[in-house]
Amino acid sequence: MDERKLEYFVGVARExxxxxxxxxxxxxxxxxxxxxxxxEKELGVELLTRSSRSVTLTDAGARFxxxxxxxxxxxxxxxxEARASDEALTGELHVGVLSGLAMVDLPRLLGEFxxxxxxxxxxxxxxxxxxxxxxxxxxxxxxxLAFFGTTEHExxxxxxxxxxxxxxxxxxxxxxxxxxEEIRLSDxxxxxxxxxPLGFGxxxxxxxxxxxxxxxxxxxxxxxxxxAIPKFVEQGLGVALLAPEFIGAELRVRAVPLAEKxxxxxxxxxxxxxxxxxxxxxxxxxxxxAHLAPERGF
Length: 298
Description:
Blueprint: H1 3-15, H2 18-25, H3 29-43, E1 48-50, E2 55-57, H4 59-83, E3 91-96, H5 106-116, E4 120-125, H6 130-139, E5 145-150, E6 157-166, E7 168-172, E8 192-195, H7 201-212, E9 218-222, H8 229-234, E10 240-242, E11 253-256, E12 264-272, H9 279-287
Parallel strand pairs: 3-4, 3-5, 8-9
Antiparallel strand pairs: 1-2, 5-12, 6-12, 7-10, 7-11
Helix pairs in contact: 1-2, 1-3, 1-4, 2-3
Domain HTH lysR-type: 1-58
Protein name: DNA-binding transcriptional LysR family regulator
InterPro entries: HTH-type_LysR_regulators (IPR050950), LysR_HTH_N (IPR000847), LysR_subst-bd (IPR005119), WH-like_DNA-bd_sf (IPR036388), WH_DNA-bd_sf (IPR036390)
């Protein structure tokens, strides 16, 4: 199977755009499109659904993408072994990150990785759907690895926990619950909440905690910035389930322990377990511990 055709297909699958994939590969769009068509003819299936406005993977394309990546990895490994050399790693490394992540010093981490492996092109990506979007991209092999928040073991992923966050009930000063030693979920039944949108790890934690008590949170304010949650709480716009690490010392709020002790989520870094662990991903993971900044909270 022609390696270039596979590379072009993977490029389109990752970008979901022939135009961007062609630009990344430094070829014309017509050349790239013809190569992908040729690959589809060779396989006897359509890998992509094309329209004037979008490109999406067919079911066959989604199934073939991990195999294509594995084939490319195998070809690259065979080529390197044939050369019997420890030459520098090459290729691309697609890394997914959460918006606002500061506990991992990404600039220094990426800088060290680049200095160690200058021939690898790093591409950072975020998702407007937070953890849910990043996990989907990992499972569909659009990302090589990603930082995400989770409340449970994620299937088909190799995960490395970086930090656990235990949430308290955050209320503004002067709130009727502010002087409690602890707060039960049942005390929050009539409260409005400030939280992140559905799909983010923080929101997933809140939904699961309430679901276990056969309740559901009344989320009145949503924000994609976790550090903004206590600021909205301070203004009396709602209460929140949030780890104290996210609360600035200057804010006039109180973090009261939750009686059920069941609200927690974990910041992780992970890669797909359905694909072999590449040398580039392994080298990146090895560098992370030296670039953690726990004093930053998140």
